[in-house]
């Protein structure tokens, strides 16, 4: 009886595909997960490996991201820093507080607007980022290791193009 049921045509709706998968081929004929699903999986893997690489320095990926944003931009409010670090303002408030307590950043009133506090890296923050650099570069190298050299530029360009398409911000 069970064998007959196994051979019988399925009743009801077709099975739902796994999350993030596209059962139909894309325009280039690829089947499988949607690109956005793959990007999210890559993001989660990177975050996990980053957290592990940064643990000896007492940093999380979010804290490291905030520090690197300040390294490149400096003088940002918590709200600006949150937007550039891809976290909610409430989360950034906690990150800023922790980084300030460790002496990695300092905050001062913004010139011309005493209601806004801007964060900047301290010398200790700059030194910690320099100390983290080899571990982060090792992860970057690991990410690119199995991508042939001639495709690495295209991989990066594809990520930048996708980001620009969604945000309207074009990188140069």
TrEMBL record:
Keyword DNA-binding: yes
PROSITE patterns for the chain: HTH_MARR_1, HTH_MARR_2
InterPro entries cross-referenced by the UniProt entry: HTH_MarR-typ, Tscrpt_reg_MarR-type_CS, WH-like_DNA-bd_sf, WH_DNA-bd_sf
Stretches for region Disordered: 1-32
Keyword hit for Secreted: no
Keywords: DNA-binding, Transcription, Transcription regulation
Residue stretches of biased makeup (Pro residues): 12-22
Alphabetized Gene3D superfamilies for the sequence: Winged helix-like DNA-binding domain superfamily/Winged helix DNA-binding domain
Domain spans labelled HTH marR-type: 32-164
Protein name, UniProt field: MarR family winged helix-turn-helix transcriptional regulator
């Amino acid at each position: 009886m069970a064998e007959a049921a196994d051979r019988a045509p399925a009743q009801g709706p077709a099975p739902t595909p796994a999350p993030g998968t596209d059962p139909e081929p894309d325009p280039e004929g690829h089947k499988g997960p949607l690109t956005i699903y793959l990007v999210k999986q890559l993001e989660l893997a990177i975050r996990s490996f980053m957290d592990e690489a940064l643990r000896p320095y007492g940093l999380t990926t979010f804290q490291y991201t905030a520090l690197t944003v300040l390294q490149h931009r400096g003088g940002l409010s918590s709200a600006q820093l949150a937007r550039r670090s891809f976290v909610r303002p409430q989360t950034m408030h906690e990150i800023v507080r922790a980084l300030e307590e460790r002496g990695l950043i300092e905050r001062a009133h913004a010139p011309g607007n005493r209601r806004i506090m801007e964060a900047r890296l301290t010398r200790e923050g700059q030194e910690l980022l320099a100390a983290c650099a080899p571990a982060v570069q090792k992860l970057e190298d690991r990410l690119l290791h199995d991508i042939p050299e001639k495709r690495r530029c295209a991989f990066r360009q594809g990520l930048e193009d996708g980001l620009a398409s969604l945000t309207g911000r074009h990188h140069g």
